[in-house]
Give the backbone structure.
Amino acid sequence: MADEISPKELQERRLKKEDKYIIIDVRESDEIAVKGIDVKDSKIFGAINIPIGRLLRDSRNGDLDDLRQITIYTYSSDGFRGNVAADILNKQGFNAINIQGGFFAWNEEEQRIKKEGSSS
């Protein structure tokens, strides 16, 4: 199991802009179009999509070696495949952390923040 970070903790880190990182969405492209969610809001802002199979193949082939010096945050829909991806990347020498609960948890946190902001 890989280390995990909650959506709230990651959002706080992003606001501080202290460390260099990348967010990788390991879902297949057809999963990103989440029913009931606007396409522009169906992934974490700034994340890049590299489906898990391609991510693991690219990491084994050395195509991601330039990411070894930064933190990689991974996520899937519910966090399971994001955790698998982070665990395998860590075993290959990367610093990967799974976003706890995946996109669904991230989206929930985003909605909570928007709701709090509109009630202020």
